[in-house]
Amino acid sequence: MAHEDDALEHERASWKPSPGLAVAVTDPVQPPALPPHRERITDKDPAAMKRAVRTVYTLFYLSVAASIWAVAAYMIFPIEDGQIVSIRDNNLFIGLGIALALLAIGVGAIHWSKAIMSDREFIEPRHATRGRDTTRTAVVEAFAVANEESGFGRRAMIRNSLFAALVASVIPGITLFRGLAPQNEDPVELLSHTMWKQGMRLAHDPSGEPIRAADITLGSAVHVIPEELASLGHAEGYLDQKAKAIVLLMRMLPEQITEAPDKKDWSYDGIVAYSKVCTHVGCPVALYEQQTHHLLCPCHQSQFDVSNGAAVIFGPAARPLPQLPITIDAEGYLIARSDFLEPVGPSFWERH
């Protein structure tokens, strides 16, 4: 049996096809070929190409006009009177201008890529992830080809109108942000003084009820406004004054507080009061963790240590929260010793 197996193996190894015998050879699977290129109407008709070019730069200039309209609407429809109709019109027309400006840029860019830029199909072979010595040259060549195919370098009207649309699109945002700043007044001076003054009682926000020191429990955090502010109701100037004077009141064990020598009498029996306005960009700091005595600003995660002068322990805030000096009156109500002794709010207002 073993001899038969050896003979069979020898026969298989020595077998060769006869000259007239066809042998099937299996080739590797080839990638499918690219489909035939279909020319667009703009490729075949110069007039259609000119119309497409005009459409694109018209959309870009329309974006410029919409951005200018958004700025004009900001001035045509002011909101200083506080009326709902004024606020509605202001938001509506500014929003329409900004939306149209961005939409025109997007539609123009898409039409440019679909109707004007080269749409020739090509195969890009894969290569090793490690760069070669010729990579820089290849990148320059790729940019040159992209410039040629897109027409960015030679189609001046499209290029210039795109630049104009992009520049104009940021103008409404700059205008709106400029409106947030005080007009014709020194912001440092405005933020250096609030409604707090010597003897003014601390009151609950928004009820305006005065606060007794005995009612503040250990570990609590109370939102506070000046008592006189509550009497204004929602009259003109109420929100401006509240935005500067808002305070957070907290209580801890007196021995847990580290106080600077010149601020020894700024707290009362473990009760401290700090401005709620973050010194980064002015967000309300109101998330209090009673175990660590940390205050967190929810906007950019600045953290302040209330037990150590509200010092910054994390985040982008540049300085501690301003402290309101407090004590009690003859009836046991918490009162302010004075106004804040430094400007409240973002530190950037103090830069010159």
Estimate the strand proportion.
5-15%
Instruction: Provide the structure class.
Output: alpha+beta
Helix content: 25-40%
Whole-number count of domains? 2
Poorly predicted ranges (pLDDT <50, ≥5 residues)? none
CATH class group of the largest domain: Mainly Beta
The CATH topology of the largest domain comes to: Rieske Iron-sulfur Protein
Report the average pLDDT across residues.
84
Q: What is the chain-wise order of helices and strands?
A: HHHHHHHHEEHHEEEEEEEE
CATH fourth-tier homologous superfamily of the largest domain: Rieske [2Fe-2S] iron-sulphur domain
* CATH architecture label name of the largest domain: 3-layer Sandwich
Main beta-sheet annotation = 4 strands, antiparallel
What would you call the shape? elongated
Radius of gyration: 36 Å
> Whole-Å distance between the termini?
104 Å
**Total DSSP helices:** 10
Spatial order of strands in the largest sheet: 1-2-3-4
Number of strands: 10
